[in-house]
Predict the structure.
Amino acid sequence: MAENFDAVVVGGGIAGASLAYAMGKAGARVLVLEADTEFKDRVRGEVLCPWGTADAQVLGIMEVLQQADACALPWLNQYMGPQQIARRDFLATTPANTPIMTFYHPKCRRPFCKPPRRPARKCGAA
C-alpha cells in the first residue's frame, strides 16, 4: 500500500533532518531520503553562528543539539600573538542574544536519524 507524504526531503544531514523535524512538528507528513545508513565524517561546518543558533531555537532543535553535546560559546577572544586584541560578547551584541554553537557533525546527526532516539520520526517524518 502506498503512503502519502506532504513533503520529501532529500538528504538526512543536519539541514535535511532539521527541516523534516520542524515540518513534522508543524503537522506535515515528511519522508526523508538518505543514501547512507551510517554517517561518515566529512569536512563540514560544525559551527552555528549566533543567527543560526537563533534559527535552531525557532525550529525547536536545540534539545537535539544539546543531546549531541553541542557547546555554547557566549564570547570570542581574538589574539595577535600573545596579546588579546578583541573580545566579543555574543549574548550582549546579537539581536537574539544567542551564542555560537559548536558540535561534532556525525554525533549531532545521530539523534535525528538513529534509533532509539528519532525526534524527526516522533514528529511525523518517516
